Recover the amino acids of this structure.
């Protein structure tokens, strides 16, 4: 089961976060900082699967963008690794050149909607109406 989904730039700033379990806000901040530190400190030669506390981290880097997914012990790592790649391909088609450019904060609403629809198999209709 996916516990959380993060998109982070090379400077360590979280650009998108989606949690599938309740975690208090201050614990989210600490968790994100630790997870980002672990992923950014690894070289490209190291494995993209990390054992971390009571879950596993799966991450992929696309130019200046890191996509990190936290999963439980029973989830298939390779399936999640491919899910990340497929999701980035969808974003690349939708936004154009996601892999080659810095993620923009204005895209957060669209990407949150896109990931929710992609990961849950739902339909997503984007509008310019902000809550």
């Amino acid at each position: 089961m996916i516990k959380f989904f993060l998109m982070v730039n090379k400077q360590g700033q979280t650009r998108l976060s989606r949690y599938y379990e309740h975690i208090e806000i201050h614990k989210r901040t600490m968790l994100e900082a630790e997870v980002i530190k672990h992923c950014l400190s690894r070289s490209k030669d190291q494995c993209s699967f990390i054992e971390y506390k009571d879950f596993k981290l799966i991450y992929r880097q696309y130019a200046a963008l890191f996509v990190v997914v936290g999963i439980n012990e029973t989830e298939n790592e390779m399936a999640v690794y491919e899910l990340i790649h497929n999701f980035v391909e969808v974003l690349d088609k939708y936004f154009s050149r996601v892999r080659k450019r810095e993620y923009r904060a204005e895209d957060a609403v669209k990407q949150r909607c896109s990931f929710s629809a992609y990961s849950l198999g739902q339909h997503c209709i984007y509008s310019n109406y902000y809550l």
